[in-house]
Amino acid sequence: MPIPLNENEIFPVTLEYLPYRKDDSFYAANFIDIWYFSRRGYISAKVDIRGTGGSEGIRVPKEYSDIELDDGEEIIRQLAIYPRSNGAVGMLGLGWSGFNSLMMATMRKPPALKAIYAAHASEDLYYNDVHYIDGVLHEDEYILSIDHENALPSSPLYSVDNDYISNRFLQYPWMDLYLQYQNDNVEFWHEHSIMYHYENLTIPCYLVSGLYDSYRDAAFNIYTNVKAHNQKVKLVAAPVTHTMPEDQTPGPGYDSNSDIVSWFDYWLKEKNTGVMEQPDLTIYVRNTTLSPTESMNKPIPGEYRYETTWPIERIQLKKMYLIMGKMLSSQQPASNSSMPDELEYMPWIGVQSRTGWGGLTGDQSELDKYALVYDSEILNKTIEIVGFVNVTLEVSTNVTQTNWIVRLEDVHPNGEVTLVTGSLRNGAQINGRLLPRYLTPNQMYTITLSLHFTTWTFQLKHRLRVSILNSYFPALWPSPFPMKTKLYFGTIDLPVIPSNNMDFYVTPDFTQRQRVPSDLPIISDRTLLLEGNKTYMTIENTEEMTTTVSYTSYVYQSIKDFYVASQLRWNLTVHHYDASNVTWTAMAKQIYVWNIYPNITMCSSTESGLSSSCLQINVLSGYPTLDLTTRRSLELQTSLSINSDQNNFYTNTKRTLMQNGTQTLVNQFKQTHPRQFQ
Known about the structure:
Strand content: 35-45%
Radius of gyration: 26 Å
Domain Xaa-Pro dipeptidyl-peptidase C-terminal: 261-498
CATH architecture of the largest domain: 3-Layer(aba) Sandwich
Helix content: 10-25%
Keywords: Hydrolase
Number of domains: 3
Number of helices: 11
Structural class: alpha+beta
Shape: globular
CATH class of the largest domain: Alpha Beta
Protein name: Xaa-Pro dipeptidyl-peptidase C-terminal domain-containing protein
Strand order of the largest sheet: 2-1-3-4-7-8-9-10
GO molecular function: dipeptidyl-peptidase activity
Number of strands: 31
Low-confidence stretches: none
């Protein structure tokens, strides 16, 4: 909260509303944001959702529940009447807090909510969220971490009492809840997806889309469907993953907190910051000659541009054809081939794609060895695209359940391949998401799909490539049957920006502002002691004929007078010759140790770790090298697993709580969920 200059000074309020434990797991990030906004005249509220973090009550029954939104209304009402508040509240956030900002603005519309800022937030909870990517089951570290952290005791006391046991520890795992709803034809997904309520979004709305984020379509879908009745919508598409632009992953980013202040100053303080005089759209167009290996973990060359219309009026569609000889041609063939290209299903293929349509993927040439690929001629001029690439395929399969993955790629002269964009179609949804049905073997089907939003410039001497797969492991849970698919014909429509328009672009000033050192506070009561790099390892077992992808991460830190260790790992394994036999195992562990020395640091290898200045840590166990008999400690372990066969998913969740080294609570859930078109 800012310090008032006089007893009558009042301030607007920013609200971020999450289940991500503001007092420990997200303490550092929250401190930086609150410090930044309070220095600029905002009361900054971070609120844990009911039954999570430091908030009381029974853990909410699911993501974005009515309880969450009901509470959100009450929180906004109370913030608006707070004595130092001017009555104007702005919601903001990334991911979850962006999602519920949109929901509050669309479905609840409390009078005090004057504007929102939503980054990487989806309009579609089934097709464009983490559980069913483009309609196919997906499991990753989020599924583990959200269940695990929401079973931890409430901060700041971390009491293990009857309320904790009933309200958190014994609550039903969300993993099982989402496996009950494997298709989009139920109200479960629709009731809080704002795509069914666009007409209600009427307050000022600032949207951020990340070119390397899985949710990047959402901002454009919202803008397209809202702009006609709401002239107060802004959109930025930046070259970032699931982070804010200022985090530069990979970048180039900009000082997005400064942009948030400019937005909220206009709507919550009634200051003319000029933000509404700027064009609605700011889009970063990628333009690099680097190979994917050269560009990994570096800012991607290109430029930010203003756009005044969406879709961009000057776009010209360029149609290309997938033809015999694995060619991608601008010339329409005389007739569709009667001799289709055939693809054998290998359920373990796809590891180079990492875990979906977000993030940096690196060179894709190895993966393309197992795909149907169609290459253009070597380009004699650049091709710049901005928008959604539309694809039509004529296909067949010899089984009843098949997924088709389509990717647009850039082939560098050195042979390396960059993933530009992609999407997929669950074969059960060919006739629509709301009408899933099994395929008829060997019947020809027409698939139409829109690849995820992209910007890209194909350079001279490069080639365009369309790559088609039936497996995308580990991003997608493999479909259960051995199969062969056939491709008879295909087209692709590219949204091309004509080269003669490139002299008219204006670079937005706000994208050139960078965060300065004075905007990064020193957090005196928190120290990051050790952080393990997130890793994706692929393990091939030639005896058992399996492929496993493994992910691990750990963070050890001190906050005030206690130590917190977080460990997380998962493995996803598929059998090569039984695609239905898939196993996902995951383990998370959180350790708290109280009464450590203030401002402690990590010991070097030559220090004892027994002084008041530094701490040694057993990296494997996560425990510090301290006398734990004289200190309170608490540990929660959560293990999740999903196994599948052709008919079912079998889940097992186990929670174990340790206090001072002694096991005090154990609970286990086992469920069987029939496969439903997955």
